[in-house]
Amino acid sequence: MRKAVRRAVVLVACALFVLVALPTAVRASGPILTPILTLTGRSSGSIGSTVTYAYSWDATACSTAGVIAGDTVILVWENSSSSEPIGSTLVAIGGIGGSCAGTVTGRVPGDSTTGDTHVSTAYVQNASLPIGGSEATANQGFFVTPAPTPTPKPTSKPTARPTPSPRPPTSSTSAAHHGALRDPKGAQAIATASGTHPGDAGGPPHKGAVITSTAPITGASSLLAVIPGGWFGLGIAAGVVLAAGVAATLVTMERRRFARMYPKESRRGHR
Hints:
The chain is an alpha+beta fold. It is 38% helix and 21% strand.
């Protein structure tokens, strides 16, 4: 009886060892069948920033799936409303660890939602067709930061214009004013001649001044006023007179030269 119990305990212990220990050892030493996508670059940035991921898949698994040299790893940006490829690279088969791997880089597209974290995916493509089982999801998302708000430029305050100072009265106005004060009779006579009187209608006398300034036109000013065109017309007239004098001198000289060369002809002409 005791021997049967011992045998049963040993069998149960062996069964537990097979069920627990062997699968653990197989998983530890066996290939990774699921592809891995790891974020290796920066984890945040604005629209247009660069994102970098490392894609890795077990060589046996990817060979079984039909991955060959020349296939491409496609990086896909996942948005809330759509997904779009943002980068690609050729897959490298073998190497250290015996895997199908590739480092792929892309840029954050312009239609990304700012202030949100986007988790990208990747897959292996063969002749423009995705290979089944090659899809991988990134281990970490990329946070898209909002664009910085531009700093408003300070507005310049308008500069106050200086108030023009009052000009002193001119000499002619002051002289007329002083003359009116010195000669009240003359001012009264002028007012009477114009039809007004200081005592009309019992009101205060009306003050008025009419200043007329005339300057005689003399010298060069009167000459330029008579000649049409001013200085320009005077220059043309002087040029005409000078040309006429030169022409007359040339004609006289030519006649004298002709008289010396042909004295007989010149005598006949006088006759």
